[in-house]
Specification:
CATH class of the largest domain: Alpha Beta
Distance between the termini: 71 Å
CATH architecture of the largest domain: 3-Layer(aba) Sandwich
Order of helices and strands: HEEEHEHEHEEHH
Radius of gyration: 24 Å
Largest sheet: 5 strands, mixed
Length: about 200
Amino acid sequence: MSFLAYSVVILWIAVILQTAVIFALARQIGILFERVSPVGAMVSSSGPELGAAAPELTLANLNGAPLDFGAARGRARLVFFLSTSCPICKALLPALKSIRADEAGWLDIVLASDGREAPHRRLIETEGLESFPYVLSPELGMRFRVAKLPFAVLIDQSGKVAAKGLVNSREQLESLFTASETGIPSYQAAIAGMTS
C-alpha cells in the first residue's frame, strides 16, 4: 500500500512539473512573437523599377469594362497576381476584400492571372469576386516579371510603380502601402539602412 501511495505522489509531482514547464514554454513563445516584427513583402529586382512608369496596356476584364494600365488615373491601383491552384492566393482573398473596403478612398484592387477562362470564372463565383476587376493576361505578368505567386504591385496615382513584391500575408500586402508612403522599398532595405 505504501508503494502505491508513493507512486501516486511521484506522478502528481511529475504532472505539476510538466504543467510548469509547459507554462514557461508558452510564455517564452509569446515573448518571441512580440519581439519578432512582421517581415514585409519580398521585393523582386526584376520587372519595372520602383518609380518607373507601369507598362501601358489595355486588358479585357472578366467582370466589366476593359482596364488601362500605365496611365495616370488619380487613384492608386493594387494589382494582385494569383492562380486558381494557389492556396495562399485564395487565403488572401478575404484580406483583399477587407483592404478594398478600408482603403476605398484612394485605392482600387485588380486581380490578375493567366490561363484558361473557365477556372477563373469558377473562382470568381465561389469566392464572390464579381465586384473586383479581374484580368487574364500572360503579357501583364511578363511585363512585371512575376515569377512566384502571390505577387502584388502597387501603382500610384500617376501610373508609376510605387511598391511590389511577393506577399504571403495581409501584413506583407500592407507593407506595400508603407513602402509607398515612406519611400523605403522593403523591410529588408530598411534593416540594411539601419545597419549601415
